[in-house]
Design goal:
single chain, 278 residues, mainly alpha, two-stranded parallel ribbon, disordered C terminus
């Protein structure tokens, strides 16, 4: 590792300073523009060279993050970045903050202290608030963020928990998988025909095609067992399932090493999934 524990503590202190600085700027925006309208606000932002959109985030978060909340965060010993406070203050469709009075953050701080955890990250907090991407969106071939991209963006220690959070939403998972399989069947119908043969594919195309088919088979497998299906495994069956999990872990590593690490950047997700019809 190219940095020390001291480097981590120093970096977090600097980030905490940045968080406090943004809150102080928000407080100043609240005080000097309280009696004026948007025109006064925008003029003041121009005077201090601050983007009005960013300034509104600072002002709103400062308003929502009251002094008792700030003191609670400061006394917790748990690292909480500015982005976490901003996400909690963000307004939900109901018009109320996603974490009114930061009650969820309070609980998470308590849990973090009890567990000896040193920080609360933004993705972790978003999931707790129900703000993270939904499984249907992540599985949708037309989505701008794929499941793989989302998981890759998470710290390693959060990835497994994020997967578990997604999978445990049983009804949502089943509906999402059904939609994926319906879309696959539609694509298959559209691409079926002699004109889609295209000759013998090269090895790279064959691997990509087979992996896409394997992904579809995995989605189909999970969709065959709705939340109502009883899964009472014997110990022997659980051992067999664990062996399968090990093989799938090896396969995932194989894909990263043989396909993603050593090859040129792949195309978009939508372009890759078109290989189903090859």
């Amino acid at each position: 590792m190219s940095y020390t524990e001291q480097d981590v503590h120093e970096g977090r202190r600097l980030m905490d300073d940045g968080r406090e600085n943004r809150l102080v700027i928000g407080d100043k925006l609240l005080s000097v523009t309280a009696s004026g309208g948007d025109g006064v606000f925008d003029q003041y932002c121009d005077e201090i060279s601050l983007n009005p959109r960013t300034a509104r985030q600072y002002r709103h978060t400062a308003r929502m993050c009251t002094p008792p909340v700030r003191q609670l965060v400061a006394d917790s010993g748990v690292h909480v970045c500015w982005s976490v406070l901003r996400e909690g203050a963000r307004l939900a469709p109901s018009g109320k903050p996603y974490d009114e009075d930061y009650n969820t953050l309070r609980s998470m701080l308590e849990e973090a202290r009890n567990a000896g955890t040193s920080r609360i990250t933004t993705p972790q907090y978003q999931r707790a608030l129900g703000m993270g991407p939904t499984l249907p969106d992540l599985l949708d071939p037309s989505s701008s963020t794929s499941l793989a991209d989302y998981l890759a963006s998470l710290p390693p220690q959060e990835r497994d928990q994020a997967l578990r959070d997604l999978v445990e939403k049983k009804a949502e998972v089943h509906d999402a998988l059904k939609r994926v399989m319906d879309e696959k069947r539609r694509r298959d119908r559209e691409t079926r025909g002699p004109e889609c043969g295209g000759g013998k594919p090269d090895k790279a195309a064959a691997v990509a095609r087979d992996l896409v088919r394997l992904s579809d088979q995995g989605a189909a497998f999970m969709s065959r067992y709705p939340p109502s299906a009883s899964l009472d495994f014997t110990d022997e069956q659980k051992i067999a399932c664990k062996e399968v999990l090990g093989t799938l872990d090896v396969l995932a590593t194989w894909i990263r090493v043989r396909v993603l690490d050593d090859q040129a950047p792949v195309g978009s997700r939508a372009e890759t999934r078109d290989l189903v019809g090859v």
